[in-house]
Amino acid sequence: MSSKALSRRKFIGAATVGGAAAASSLAAPAVLAQSPITLRMQSSWPASDVFQEMAQQYVERVDKMSNGRLKIELLPAGAVVGAFQVQDACHDGTIDAAHTVPVYWYGKNKAASLFGTGPVFGADANQMIAWLYHGGGYEFYRELTQDILGLNVVGFLSFGMPAQPFGWFKEPIEDASQLAGLKYRTVGLAADLFQAMGAAVAQLPGGEIVPAMERGVIDGFEFNNPTSDSRFGAQDVAKNYMLSSYHQASESFEYIFNKDTFDGLDPDLQAILQYGVEAAHLANFSLAMDQYSADLEKLQNESGVNVIRTPDSILQAQLEAWDKILPPLMEDDYFKRVVDSQKEWCERVVYFSLQNSPDYRLAYQHYYPDKL
Description:
By secondary structure, the chain is α/β, with parallel strands linked by helices.
């Protein structure tokens, strides 16, 4: 550094050269010795959950892309605050960041569920993430968090989750009428949906589900996927696992940062935090496809779980229940604007997808005729 500075300044007086060289020699060690910035991130997941592994994939990518300049200390649910309290903790600076889902703070505004676990207009989770980027979704998200709720946070979303199973039951649910009076665990607008179908809903974090089932507090439940479900012992309290549902068909992870902390970072580090979310999207999806499918096989073959596809009549009843709960919610101007935007997006995007996509079920049955 000193020799280059001297070369560039060879026409400047000796005193000036000496001063520049001295300043350079003093500044260089300070830059080289700069410690990495460490952000403390808490998730909404137990340490053993696959979601914690997915959060770790993000942490690893941020570390590598920043060449070690930016470190994230990842903590599990309960390390600092409860699973449902991470947004508040980010807002007030108790933690720097959180890995969670928007539905966990829908108690503040039901429109939070529209960024995951909202009504289904035909699009899958990845198509709804595309709405965030190209359909105006991110501006709606910013409006809700910062303008309406006044939260001191910045957030990004990724990993379009496979549609969540209908749930775990002691006896199969063959008709929607069986939900009447059933004590059922879910979260977000899915709670409104199942209440409209007659269920008595309890909203519980993942770590509290199995104990609640053992005590008879609930009769059935859903969480998210075969890997998470099996790791917390769902198969020990119920043996009927019903896949396919419209109650949470398009959820995604949410990465929240304290806005003051985020704004205080250099622009390149801000970009790494933002676009690292996109890198984690692919990493998370790939891990999910491997783990979810393998663990579903284990549940069937090793744990004696009866895996059932939810009857179409129940799916239709769910759509009709969505039609009941949406009109009063859409009396709120913001909620209506978001839903209208999503419906407009889905009409165009899903039309293309359905017209363009071949029948993958037909191809699967051709090569594995005895599986389905």
